[in-house]
Design goal:
By secondary structure, the protein is an alpha+beta fold. It contains six helices and 13 strands. It folds into two domains: 172 residues, Porin (Beta Barrel), CATH 2.40.160; 138 residues, 3-Layer(aba) Sandwich (Rossmann fold), CATH 3.40.50.10610. Helix 2 packs across helix 3.
Length: 340
């Protein structure tokens, strides 16, 4: 018993660690955090200009500059240069807000605008996320007053601004992930073969093993849950009372995305159970309920930790087993996903 709980705790830590290491935020939150950081690094009351942001997309640059400017103006700690003055100067000096501006040119622009601090940066693709860099530079000395980087998830806003077909899901969000092959962790209707081992504790303690096959999965980008219909078969045995029984049947499992790239999933399922008690020679119909967490180690393999409950509702023959067979426990397993 103690060994089971130790292993379960280790399994949970294994699941959580890589997820936190890949944590990313949406673009709006990243910009708000960067603005707060800059405010803390630049002397209060300084005159500042949000100059340029290097990126591959003009719309993305305009959005970043606009959001940073609005936040800084409304916060009030810094005096922000009027964007109309910057636009006039930009046309005269012929530089692009989405392009690279040399330090010398940036200082010259800052002086012409009467600014003491230049705020600029860049946003570039970085694997499955974007990398945002924001910095503040003193106009007179070119000293870096502050610099912050962050990972930005490709949500619907960033995808629209950058023309990306890949949309990642943040924790607690129902944002859709594409089913076009651009995200290998998408819920894309793969066949699922799951193997598991369980320790059950009810009227009788039992150990079990079994398998699950997903026969149909409907991917709906706008759905809160993705339903999967499955067939399960499990065998349990109790050495204490020499009880053996087989349980299995069809069911439905709902998968909920929790974190980036769908690697961490919440599973909630219910099944119709046919229970055959080998020891007493009786058959039952019942229900099974399961719920737990899955972590996608690779696009095609996940580790599963579930709570499991099974109970019989109707006895089908006149065997000698009790009218009700119930058991509950913990289940550890591994799932393999193969394309159709």
């Amino acid at each position: 018993m103690k060994q089971i709980f130790v292993f379960m705790a280790f399994f949970s830590l294994l699941c959580f660690y890589p997820v936190e290491a890949q944590e990313a935020v949406n673009l709006k939150d990243a910009l708000d955090d960067a603005a707060v950081y800059i405010i803390g690094r630049v002397p209060r009351g300084s005159k500042a200009v949000v100059l340029n942001f290097q990126s591959d997309h003009v719309a993305l640059t305009d959005y970043i500059i606009g959001e940073l400017t609005v936040f800084l103006v409304n916060e009030g700690s810094l005096t922000i240069v009027d964007r109309q003055n910057l636009e006039m100067l930009r046309q005269e000096m012929d530089f692009q807000l989405s392009g690279e501006v040399s330090d010398e040119s940036a200082q010259t622009i800052g002086r012409l605008l009467g600014a003491q601090t230049i705020i600029s940066g860049e946003i570039t693709p970085f694997g499955n996320v974007y990398r945002l860099l924001v910095r503040a530079i003193a106009v007179e000395t070119a000293a870096i007053q502050g610099m912050q980087t962050s990972n930005v998830a490709i949500d619907s806003t960033l995808a629209a601004l950058s023309g990306s077909s890949q949309v990642s899901s943040r924790r607690g969000s129902s944002a859709a992930l594409p089913n076009d092959g651009s995200n290998p962790f998408a819920l894309d209707g793969k066949r699922v073969f799951a193997l598991s081992a369980a320790g059950m504790y009810g009227k009788d303690r039992a150990w079990g093993a079994g398998g699950t096959i997903t026969v149909f999965e409907k991917y709906n980008p706008g759905a809160f849950f993705t339903p999967s219909f499955f067939v399960t078969a499990k065998y349990f045995q109790s050495n204490d009372y020499v009880i053996y029984f087989f349980s299995g049947g069809p069911g439905v499992l709902f998968k909920r995305r929790l974190t980036e790239m769908e690697r961490f999933l919440l599973n909630v399922g219910i099944s119709i159970e046919f229970i055959n008690d080998f020891d007493w020679g009786s058959n039952h119909l019942g229900i099974g309920v399961q719920g737990g967490l899955s972590y996608r180690v690779t696009p095609n393999i996940s580790l599963d930790l579930n709570g499991l409950f099974k109970t019989s509702l109707v006895q089908l023959n006149s065997g000698n087993s009790p009218d009700n067979l119930s058991t509950a426990g913990a289940e550890l397993g591994v799932t393999f996903m193969l394309p159709y």
